[in-house]
From TrEMBL, chains A, B:
Keywords: DNA-binding, Transcription, Transcription regulation. GO terms for molecular function: DNA binding. PROSITE patterns: HTH_HXLR. InterPro entries: HTH_HxlR, WH-like_DNA-bd_sf, WH_DNA-bd_sf. Residues 19-117 form the HTH hxlR-type domain. This is Transcriptional regulator. The keyword Transcription applies. It comes from Shimazuella alba.
Length: 117, 117
DNA sequence: CTGTATCCTCACAGATACTG
DNA sequence: CAGTATCTGTGAGGATACAG
């Protein structure tokens, strides 16, 4: 499993019920993770396909974010041993269980935009 | 309204539907914002009360996070002109509309913990 | 095609002290 | 009680080059 939140175990009685929130936020809160999960929830996607679908992301960041999502059990990585090599990414079952939250956030964001623009 | 996401307008056709997700993540993704919103969703809370309920947060960070939430229209600030002065914080209507998402994240986080521990 | 390896910077956050 | 003012450090993230 991936990194724990700093001080995750330091939760006091008062805020202990808030910690799962911080944990979730930590797992999906990376700069590009929301987009990545959203894309993978629609279809399995290869590395370069992701790079193309997310303008502005660097190879380095795409790799790092995918590695973290993988370590946290959200994303599956499947290597096709062809030449050239192909790597497909998809959501794990746990990753798929995140999509309702992502979709809620998408709807809330759209609503927010229409109300504040 | 608060800061826009960097490059929020740079969304390509492919990912434009993902941008509201990034926006939402940006608004609630600050290090302490999830906890703050969660606490305020239960009851209006004063500054020092928040500080007490969130061990580990500094006065500086509490102020900054509250200011950002206020600028983004999530939190309301109400000054009681007593001596000593008292300042109450509460969720706006828009802030309250976030609580289902926060609660989903809390449930997902708890589920995640029980499955990965 | 799918990555590592470096180097760099700058915004975010911690610590501490001070104030109306 | 509810903040501001500094100073400082860390690490997330960007740019670029190289590699199997």
């Amino acid at each position: 499993m991936g990194n724990r939140l700093n001080g995750f175990g330091d939760c006091s009685i008062e805020v202990e019920r808030a910690c799962p929130i911080e944990l979730t936020l930590h797992i999906i809160g990376g700069k590009w993770k929301g987009v990545i999960i959203n894309i993978l929830s629609k279809k399995d996607t290869r590395f370069n396909e992701l790079k193309r679908l997310i303008p502005g992301i660097s190879q380095r960041m795409l790799t790092l974010q995918l590695r973290e999502l993988e370590a946290d059990g959200i994303v599956k990585r499947k290597v096709e041993e062809t030449i050239p090599i192909k790597v497909g990414y998809s959501l794990t079952h746990q990753g798929e269980s995140l999509t309702p939250i992502i979709q809620s956030m998408r709807m809330w964001g759209n609503d927010y935009i229409s109300k504040n623009e």
